[in-house]
Amino acid sequence: xxxxxxxxxxxxxxxxxxxxxxxxxxxxxxxxxxxxxxxxxxxxxxxxxxxxxxxxxxxxxxxxxxxxxxxxxxxxxxxxxxxxxxxxxxxxxxxxxxxxxxxxxxxxxxxxxxxxxxxxxxxxxxxxxxxxxxxxxxxxxxxxxxxxxxxxxxxxxxxxxxxxxxxxxxxxxxxxxxxxxxxxxxxxxxxxxxxxxxxxxxxxxxxxxxxxxxxxxxxxxxxxxxxxxxxxxxxxxxxxxxxxxxxxxxxxxxxx
Length: 256
Ligand SMILES: [Zn+2]
Hints:
CATH class of the largest domain: Alpha Beta
Number of helices: 13
Number of domains: 2
Structural class: alpha/beta
Bound molecules: zinc ion
Radius of gyration: 20 Å
CATH topology of the largest domain: Rossmann fold
């Protein structure tokens, strides 16, 4: 089960979504906008709440007990993280949605990468989005809400997972001189101090909808946390990844 990034799990949109799920008031058609790396985790976390009898999730109710890893008899998926479903997969989803729930009181359908749906596939979902069966909840997962077909957007409750940024919050260096200044300021910094900066940087990038970049910083944070790099290597890797835009997973792939 992929876990929801803490910045999303603690966000105001997530609190609202949880409140609506617990009150049984979650809309039948919604679009969850989040960084692409978080789409799967977010969709599954939302499904756990919506399929639960109490709406709280993981409470041991018969429906919660029916989960096997990331699968549930009343959870339907179309497409995958980074790949929108084609029209045949959309039609399968529509058919499966019509069946009565098996373990829960409703069925939840996840449509991945909905912002990259081709027009025929998107059009095939219009009727389902407009009039889902009484037991059905349709969740579009996407990164860029502006790219969702307007006819789907108008039928969906939009829930953008933007993270609030405080005034004066730290942001990553951008220009050459900012990077030079940052490096000289952190040349003697210990790894935990370096890592402490990444949280505010991720929030800053999410706030300005730079989801890819937020994902890069997050992956970098995980690597620095787990790989026990020296301070110098950590600084070098940060500059390579965030300033030079090197794909750092490939860079050290053979060593790790
Ligand atoms: Zn439950």
